[in-house]
Amino acid sequence: MLDAKSGYKPSAIWRSLVVGKEVLKKGLRRSIGNGRMTGVWTDPWVPSKVPIVLPRPNHIETKNEKVHELRTEDGTGWDEGKLAARFEEGMRSHQKRAFGCGARGRHVDMGNGQQGGLLCENGVQMRYGGILECSMCNNEPEGVFHALVDCPELQILWAMAKYDYSSRVYHTNILEWLAMEAAEWSDEQLASLAVAIYLVWERRNKKKFASEVIHAEELWQRVERVMDELQIVTFTEDRSKSEPISFEWEKPEYPYTKLNIDASIIKEGGGALGGILRDETGACVGAYTHFVQYPNDPLLLEAMAIRNGLDLAHKVGCTHLMVESDAKMVIDILRTPCDKASTLNALYREILRSCTNFQVVNFNWIPRMCNLVADFIFRKARIDCKNVVWTDSVPLYLSEVIFDI
Ligand SMILES: [Zn+2]
């Protein structure tokens, strides 16, 4: 990146950045690796507060000596004779640190299994001209642009994004990127980027301060979720006042069958889904528990639980169906016109397609306390991790609880 030239839409800001990079370059001490690329007299390779290029003494005639030439032949140590011929005593200990420190992260192996790190002033995290190393890739200084956009770890996010954010590669600064490119974007593209960047920062902090790992592959899906929620909240603000008053599960009225579903993520990954179908007498006419490895997202799991419940209801011959869930967001989405191509909306369309198997389908949000049986089934699914569907007989554990709660 530091070798980027001003070839693309050069602007005043961009040109000044290219100049700025020369300054930045000076502020970065060189990564040594195996020392074959690093010049003894041309690169600032010795740890110091301010990066310095060492002055070459007159008796050393080779201008382009490489650092590895000062190492012993097997590469495991310094050639003390060569160091003594070139540097003063005090300087030599600094040079040794350039190879010797046990920095964590990805560094070139020195051949003896030892991590050949560099520039680790505190022995834990590397510093580049005062900027800490990126805690996600452990390989580059963590400037704002790197941490939020350019880190190699994040490239999967930009690749999965449904908008084209490829112009980022022509910039080294977020404001500059937006100032030059975003005028042509839709509001949604811009908002999605803001959400993405927020989630990237949150992910970075979770790793750095709580050692919690969020896979970069999940980031775009999370962006879509936030965008979905945003749309739903905007659409349903005035609807939320007309929610149910009852706080008990109620039998459906003939000819309706009622489907109650519940779902939740499982900490180890994936989730558990459960659903129960009851007729106008309150009798169970079908139930299921499903265990899925993917996704690990509460809203998607709730939507999957509804879809599976609809399949079951169709199988047992329901014609009029009331679907109840305590996931308000999912029910709101099912009542809201949505045309975006998110994963949740793909499920939503599948659900609407399933609805055509019935004469009538209603979706209702109910408070959690009215959904206890479904909640119970899903807890069972979470423990059993099995996929089971009952249509002809009620499972024993259910027949015991169904009239108690
Ligand atoms: Zn990084």
Describe the structure.
Strands 7-6-3-4-5-8 form a 6-stranded mixed β-sheet, with helices on both faces. The chain has a two-stranded antiparallel ribbon with strand order 1-2. It folds into 3 domains: 29-128, no CATH class; 132-237, no CATH class; 245-401, Nucleotidyltransferase, domain 5 (2-Layer Sandwich), CATH 3.30.420.10. It contains 13 helices and 8 strands. The protein has 405 residues and is α/β, with parallel strands linked by helices. A hairpin with a 5-residue loop joins strand 3 (256-265) and strand 4. The N and C termini lie far apart (63 Å). The protein has helices at 12-27, 80-86, 89-100, 144-150, 155-160, 174-181, 187-210, 219-236, 298-315, 328-334, 343-355, 372-384, 396-401, and strands spanning 127-128, 131-132, 256-265, 271-278, 284-292, 320-325, 360-365, 388-390. The structure holds zinc ion (ZN). Zinc ion is lined by residues 134, 136-137, 140, 146, 151, 153. Pfam families: RVT_3 (PF13456). Residues 266-376 form the RNase H type-1 domain. GO terms for molecular function: nucleic acid binding; RNA-directed DNA polymerase activity; RNA-DNA hybrid ribonuclease activity. InterPro entries: RNase_H-like_dom_plant (IPR044730), RNase_H-like_EbsB-rel (IPR052929), RNaseH-like_sf (IPR012337), RNaseH_domain (IPR002156), RNaseH_sf (IPR036397).
